[in-house]
Amino acid sequence: MSQTIHHNKQDIIPQKSKGQNFLKNKHIINNIVDAANMTKQTAILEIGPGMGALTDEIIVKAGKVVVVEIDPKLVEFLEQKYHNHKNLKIIKADILKVDINELLAVEFDDFKVVNVISNLPYYITSPIIFKLLTSSNPKMKTLILMMQKEVGERILAQPNNKQYNNLSVVCQYYCDIKKVCLVGKNNFFPVPKVDSIVLAFTFNKKNLAIDNETKFLEFIRALFAYKRKTILNNFATITKDKTLATNVLNNLGYNLNLRAENLSLNDFYQIYQGWTTWQAK
């Protein structure tokens, strides 16, 4: 049976297919907004505003707010709710199809700092995070993102932890990350099956001399492809030459029986550089 929210003569039915779970705890809303460190010189991009629980607070503190919402019913609702707010723009779009750099250039030309706030839909959390991280826009300073607790714990995980994976390494390559707060499932309507966590990502790309960033990220992903395999076996799949993979790892002094979860960001970098150097010979 569907659950309906009645608001100002409008009925909103949360869409499970769009991952819609609306935050209702005012204390947590304030924690999220405060984490963005807003002033009137700050612009905010909010992804998936829903019914505006976060937006209500953001528009009071930020210089300009742009919200991107895919659901036409919610867009209509937001347009009626905020029709008197001059510092807010509502865009109906799928964020995964939006050119982030173009959006920032067009909408935030007068701002030097743009922060992102989002209660991420569980089913597209990773694609949205990767899209934001790889946009590499100098205006974008901080991301305040709420996500499934399990995913957030993976992002925070360190080497030698079973939760540590490709997402952990890539996020930590681009950003310094800290936990803002945990959010129990009962703080949402309708109530989801899992708890959430809010993380603050501060852009601070690690200063690694990488010639091809896309190739480096693909390399990290490939070393995690089969988590139970050793780095030698995964690396050999990448090089298509087990002898070459063995030589590179031995030359760098790595134990061939290590797994990807044992490697730090710097280890991935050293192996990647060792491989590219070997290829150049």
TrEMBL record:
Molecular function (Gene Ontology), one example: RNA binding
Residue ranges of domain Ribosomal RNA adenine methylase transferase N-terminal in the record: 28-205
Main location: cytoplasm
Residues holding S-adenosyl-L-methionine: 21, 23, 48, 69, 94, 119
Coiled coil (UniProt feature): none
Pfam families in UniProt: RrnaAD (PF00398)
Subcellular localization, as worded in the UniProt entry: Cytoplasm
Positions of transmembrane segments: none
Keywords in alphabetical order: Cytoplasm, Methyltransferase, RNA-binding, rRNA processing, S-adenosyl-L-methionine, Transferase
E.C. number: 2.1.1.182
A single GO cellular-component term on record: cytosol
InterPro entries: KsgA/Erm, rRNA_Ade_diMease-like_C, rRNA_Ade_Mease_Trfase_CS, rRNA_Ade_methylase_Trfase_N, rRNA_adenine_dimethylase, SAM-dependent_MTases_sf
Gene3D superfamilies per UniProt: Ribosomal RNA adenine dimethylase-like, domain 2, Vaccinia Virus protein VP39
Catalysed transformations (reactions): adenosine(1518)/adenosine(1519) in 16S rRNA + 4 S-adenosyl-L-methionine = N(6)-dimethyladenosine(1518)/N(6)-dimethyladenosine(1519) in 16S rRNA + 4 S-adenosyl-L-homocysteine + 4 H(+)
Stated family: Belongs to the class I-like SAM-binding methyltransferase superfamily. rRNA adenine N(6)-methyltransferase family. RsmA subfamily.
Function: Specifically dimethylates two adjacent adenosines (A1518 and A1519) in the loop of a conserved hairpin near the 3'-end of 16S rRNA in the 30S particle. May play a critical role in biogenesis of 30S subunits.
HAMAP family the UniProt entry points to: 16SrRNA_methyltr_A
UniProt protein name: Ribosomal RNA small subunit methyltransferase A
Organism for this UniProt entry: Spiroplasma syrphidicola EA-1
